[in-house]
Design a protein that fits this description.
Helix content is about 30%, strand content about 30%. The longest helix is centred in the first third of the chain and has 16 residues. By secondary structure, the protein is α/β, with parallel strands linked by helices. It has a 7-stranded mixed β-sheet. Strand 4, helix 6 and strand 5 form a beta-alpha-beta unit.
C-alpha cells in the first residue's frame, strides 16, 4: 500500500523522520539541511506506485529517462555548499520532478531551477504547487547555458553529470560563490568550484552516479 493511500499525514511523517535519522547516521550534521529534508514530502514527487520507496536511500525513476536523486546525495551536496556560509541566490540545473528545488527553498534565499524537458518541468510545477514556495522559480532552459537573466548566483548546483564544467556556469557564479556538479562519464565524482575573484578553485569530493547533462531543450 502506498504512503498516499495509507495515510498521507502520519505515515509519511514517520517515514520522513526515519529518513532524517538515517541521514544523521550517515554523517549529515547541518540542522537546517536536515530540517529542510523533514519539511519536504518526497513521496509526492514520485509516481504513486513508487511512494512506498520514497524515503529509502535510493534514486528513483521519474520518467523521461531521469531520476530523483537519493536523499543522502541531496543532503550531502547542499550541506557541503552551505559549509561556513549561506546559499543565497541559488541556481539549480536539472530541476527534474522539483524535489531538490523544494529542499533548497528552505535553505536558500532564492531558487532558480531550470529543466530542459518541458513535460518534466510541467510535472515539477504540479508537484511544487501544493507547497506554495514563494522563493522558487522554474524555467525550461538548456542548463549548460545557466540562466543569465538572473545571474550572478551565490550557489549553483547541478543534478546531472557533465564531461567538463560548462563555461557559462562559471561565468554566472558570483565572486565568493560555489558551484557543485558531478563530473565524468562511467566514473563520476562530485566537484565543488569556488570563485575567488577571477580564480576558480576546484575540490574533488565523493564518487556518485548521475544521468548525463545534455544540451538543448525538448
Amino acid at each position: 500500500m502506498s504512503l498516499r493511500r495509507a495515510d498521507p499525514g502520519q505515515a509519511a511523517t514517520r517515514a520522513r523522520a526515519r529518513m532524517v535519522e538515517r541521514l544523521r547516521g550517515q554523517g549529515i550534521r547541518d540542522e537546517r539541511v536536515l530540517a529542510a529534508m523533514m519539511q519536504v514530502p518526497r513521496h509526492t514527487f514520485v509516481e504513486e506506485g513508487l511512494a512506498y520507496s520514497a524515503y529509502d536511500d535510493t534514486a528513483l525513476p521519474i520518467g523521461y529517462q531521469q531520476t530523483i536523486s537519493q536523499p543522502f546525495v541531496v543532503a550531502k551536496m547542499i550541506e557541503t555548499l552551505r559549509t561556513g556560509r549561506e546559499l543565497g541566490r541559488t541556481l539549480e540545473v536539472g530541476a527534474g520532478c522539483g524535489y531538490q528545488a523544494a529542499v533548497l527553498s528552505f535553505v536558500a534565499s532564492e531558487v532558480y531551477a531550470v529543466e530542459r524537458i518541458r513535460s518534466l518541468l510541467d510535472v515539477a510545477r504540479e508537484n511544487l504547487r501544493p507547497l506554495r514556495l514563494p522563493n522558487v522559480r522554474l524555467k525550461c532552459a538548456d542548463g549548460t547555458m545557466g540562466l543569465p537573466e538572473a545571474a550572478p548566483y551565490d550557489t549553483i548546483i547541478v543534478a546531472a553529470a557533465a564531461a567538463s564544467v560548462p563555461v557559462s556556469l562559471k561565468e554566472q557564479l558570483a565572486p565568493g560563490g560555489r558551484l557543485m556538479l558531478p563530473l565524468g562519464g562511467a566514473d563520476q565524482r562530485l566537484v565543488m568550484i569556488e570563485r575567488q575573484g577571477n580564480v576558480f578553485r576546484e575540490s574533488r569530493l565523493d564518487a556518485v552516479r548521475f544521468v548525463p547533462l545534455l544540451t538543448g531543450t525538448e
